């Protein structure tokens, strides 16, 4: 069960089915309530119509036994006088509830009293007919109340028991005082319609939910099929460790297609990173092999012939090995994503500090501050100065200026410069363009690569171009420190 609902397809199907089920239950409940309310309202209208018809006959002084509504064809009818006595009722009425009185047989005293009043026209004064009424409605003789009261109940007529909607209407008569007419309309149609609608819903809703679940399952499976293809291909890539493979990209423009493209871009970046790491390890091994082999040879010769020890050469190889190890360690930290510290660094002061003690280096700088690591930026500038001095004929110029929202640091020499085709290649690791940059000059081909990596980590750029004096010009551009 956990495995089943661990599937996106299963969860999507369950969620869609639940949402539709809730919507159907809410809609079905609303329909049933509305249908029931409308049918009860119609039954109430019919009951009120019957009650008013009987009340009209009573207002017209029709005797109880001649009332047309007492035949029971339209529903049960009761007529109650002011004292609560039943004075008239439908034929064959056996039982009734919901009207306020359960009597089904008219009171003999009430009917005889009414007959005496009918025989003596002067026995009742019309002006006093409503004097004893406790109702808040002031009705004139012969007038029927405008408002009706509705209740639900049941009645048994000639052995048949049904539920009814009862309407209560008051009428002020000329000769019999205030009378109350109770008339009912059957609710069988309402019950039948509601039960039919409920049966249809109980049968139709599960079928509809089954259709929704099936369609959602199929649509989700079709939509997630490319994801399964991506997963299988990624599993195969992981098993084979072949980063040159790519996942299939659907010919669509949806989220899955974007996922596939992003996955392939990630694989391409990972492949490039692994390839760069392999080249780095190979080049580093090659670069380390030379000074280590030279140092070992000198030590072995010195062990056999102490008088032949080249101490200066051994120290030089040791220092070179130390510098190379430091460069490799810094590159490893940069590749690992080490973020520079956010301290404020004055590039003008840093340029003067790095230029101090170097012959032929001139500094023209205005104070500008950037955020970053003073140590890494100092290493960047030192590498640029080492490279410039290695190629300069006489002078190296360092400039620092503000240019919009960026600080620009330039290192220019008066050497032969860098060909335009090589101005990007020189920033690759372990690259040497000519014999002038040989191991004998102390360069391992990492200085400019480290400088560019440091620049990128600080949110800047490092480019190579032509200097005004004809040599090479390296420009570092970094964002200025934001005030406040």
Task: Draw up the topology in text.
Elements: H1 2-5, H2 8-59, E1 77-80, E2 86-89, E3 93-97, H3 108-119, E4 143-144, E5 149-157, E6 160-172, E7 178-186, H4 188-240, H5 255-304, H6 311-335, E8 343-346, H7 347-355, E9 361-365, E10 369-372, H8 374-391, E11 396-403, E12 406-413, H9 447-457, E13 461-466, E14 472-479
Parallel strand pairs: 9-11
Antiparallel strand pairs: 1-2, 1-7, 3-5, 4-6, 5-6, 6-7, 8-10, 11-12, 12-14, 13-14
Description:
The protein is built from nine helices and 14 strands. It is rod-shaped. Strands 1, 2, 3, 4, 5, 6 and 7 form a seven-stranded antiparallel β-sheet that branches. The protein has a five-stranded mixed β-sheet with strand order 9-11-12-14-13. Helix 2 (8-59) packs antiparallel against helix 4, helix 6 (311-335) runs parallel beside helix 9 (447-457) and helix 8 (374-391) runs antiparallel to helix 9. It folds into three domains: 1-240, no CATH class; 255-323, Orthogonal Bundle (Helix Hairpins), CATH 1.10.287; 339-479, 2-Layer Sandwich (Heat Shock Protein 90), CATH 3.30.565. Helix content is 48%, strand content 18%. By secondary structure, it is α+β, with helices and mostly antiparallel strands. Strand 6 and strand 7 (178-186) form a beta hairpin.
Question: Which class do the helix and strand fractions yield?
Answer: alpha+beta
- Portion of residues within helices: 40-55%
Query: How many distinct folded domains?
Result: 3
With helices defined by DSSP (H or I, 4 residues minimum), what is the helix count?
Answer: 9
Strand content: 15-25%
Q: How does the overall form come out from the CA principal axes? A: rod-shaped
Query: How many beta strands in the DSSP annotation?
Result: 14
Largest sheet: 7 strands, antiparallel
Q: What's the SSE pattern? A: HHEEEHEEEEHHHEHEEHEEHEE
Unreliable residue runs: 117-136, 435-440
Mean pLDDT: 83
- The separation of the N and C termini measures 58 Å
**Radius of gyration based on Cα positions:** 52 Å
